[in-house]
Amino acid sequence: MSRKKSSIVSVFKNQGAFQRTQNISYDSDYFIDFIKQNDLEVLAPYLARNFSLEEIDELTISWWTQEMEDEGFQKDPNWKGETPAFKIKLGENRSLDSILEGLENQTLEVFMGSDEYAMENPTIVFGAFGEGLYDRSFGKKELNSENLSLTNVIPYNEGITCDQVQSTDVVRYHMPNFRILDNTKGWPSGNFITVWVAYGTYNLNASGVPSLGFNVNRLVHEKKINRGDFGWKTDFLAQPILTHWHDSNISIQMIVAYQRNNHVMTQTVTSVSFNPNTGTTTNSQQTVSQGDTMSFGSQTWYRCAEINGGHKIDNGLGLYGGNAIWQFTGRDGRAQFTFEPRLTRL
């Protein structure tokens, strides 16, 4: 990707792609040569969602580089992103090769595109994203559905309190719903979410003596949410947070983060566990670190409080699907989610 990124910078810098002035001329021959010589991907965050492809008669073509994004965030950490763009008329043949042939010998007016513009005007963006969903004919690629299947839902038994849970009961802990409230990267990139859980582990050795350990499990790694998609996602994790929340594990800590270039996330996570063999409570800590990542925040949840119905108590943000909506109160609260314990009696 570094080779592609460098070529993008070289071509567009030479042709004034970094000029942020309106109504400048652009020689399309350079753009055509650039696309043909580089294996670029295409993002179209709002194209299929907001427009009927059969009725589009104009298309805005834009381009992105990592250097553009880095420069924007250096100037303003809250920068929403914008990219150079130009508009073209579409004919009956809408393949990319046909569109490029139609640009020959044209002088195009360049302006800056953004989310707001693309929501109202059909727009595609070229760049070395590593996440393109459209091929050279603007047809959607087949998505890998391997991680989209849902787990078997185990009903939560209403009325079962923590002190009524039996030793043979299985308590699974789920995140039924998740959403972001704003885009996490500059235009036109998608949003990539990572989730961890820190928890105590309970094991019996060959003699039946219990021992406690400590795990940090990454539940999902840079899972994509399309740009501008702020709706609730059902079973975003596609698996339980914990397949069995043992009674020795008093609390867990959740971390939710998003991809952000040139930023290293370092987070200390904690889990409180009770050892029934010694009668002692253990507070375990571990540091989680991931490059090109920024944290929405982290928080601790307690087993008995959740089983006793704490997940259904409105904490000020309302309920969704009968469960309380949670949002981190730290530096970046642009994600919301719900939790739910589900108990099955074997």
TrEMBL record:
Highest taxon in the source lineage: Bacteria
Its name, as the record gives it, is Uncharacterized protein
Supply the source organism for this entry. Answer: Algoriphagus alkaliphilus
